[in-house]
Amino acid sequence: MSTALGWLAAVGLAAGLVMGFGVAPREVTQGNVQRIMYLHVPAVWVAYLAFAVGVAGSIAYLAGRRPGADRLAHAACEVGTVFLGVNIATGAIWGKPTWGTWWTWDARLTSVAVVFVMFVAYLLLRQAIEDRERAARYAAVLSIVAALNIPLVHFSVYWWRTLHQPPSLLKPGSSTMPPEIVAALLVNFAALALLGAYFVTRRARLLAAEEEALA
Predict the structure, then answer these.
(1) With a threshold of 0.90, does the pTM exceed it?
(2) What mean pLDDT is predicted for residues 154-171?
(3) Concatenated DSSP letters for 41-104?
(4) For position 215, what pLDDT does the model report?
(5) Could you tell me if 180 and 24 are in contact, meaning their C-beta atoms sit under 8 angstroms apart?
(6) DSSP per residue, 123-151
(7) Which of 20, 26, 145, 163 is deepest in the core (most CB within 10 A)?
(8) Backbone dihedral region of 140: left (phi > 0), alpha (psi from -120 to 50 degrees) or beta?
């Protein structure tokens, strides 16, 4: 299964490059720097999707103490943290020519930084506690608490005055973006989602092998 996901992700990434650079038009105001959005936006969607899988695995582990559920939660939260890091890095690259700064402590950027730090703490917590069952239990609780902050990230641009613009797709009503740009975003989201699923399956398999080696 993981091999098939890898090949599908490779095809999807190639299609995403074609959509982002060959099909989607050059944005009138921002120019070509806007094309980084085809990585920046899908990356955060995949991160949140991975965190949702991680929380589901964490809840399942707390309910039944199944090692497989913990491995899924661990792998998904780890992959989600990587994709959220990509989102933050690409946002900084976009922000420098657009806003004139790499970073600003507005509500959206600050709230997403808090989520990122909490999931980094989740990964560090798992390494800091030697007892695997206790580490899994504590990490499961932390992942749930960290994920509760994700709605705050989404609604921060509505609740507070921020430099970051409101969402263009995940909002009530129809999108105002050209259909070519929407299509490029969705193709790249599908590609990164496949890539994320590939990473999760491979990481979960590696975690299982590590557990067998230490048993």
Answers:
(1) yes
(2) 71
(3) HHHHHHHHHHHHHHHHHHHHHHHH--HHHHHHHHHHHHHHHHHHHHHHHHHHHHHHHHHSSS--
(4) 67
(5) yes
(6) HHHHHH-S-HHHHHHHHHHHHHHHHTTHH
(7) 20
(8) alpha
Report residue 156: phi and psi, to 5°: -60, -35
Domain that holds residue 162: 2-19+36-168+175-214
Angle (CA) 13 16 19, round 5°: 160
Q: Is residue 31, in this structure, part of any structural domain at all?
A: no
Count how many domains the chain has: 1
pLDDT at site 196: 97
Is 28 within a domain?
no
Per the model's pLDDT, the better-predicted residue between 138 and 27 turns out to be 138
In a domain, 30, yes or no: no
Q: Is residue 150 part of a domain?
A: yes
Average pLDDT over residues 194-213: 94
Question: Sorting pLDDT into bands at 50, 70 and 90, what band is 105?
Answer: confident
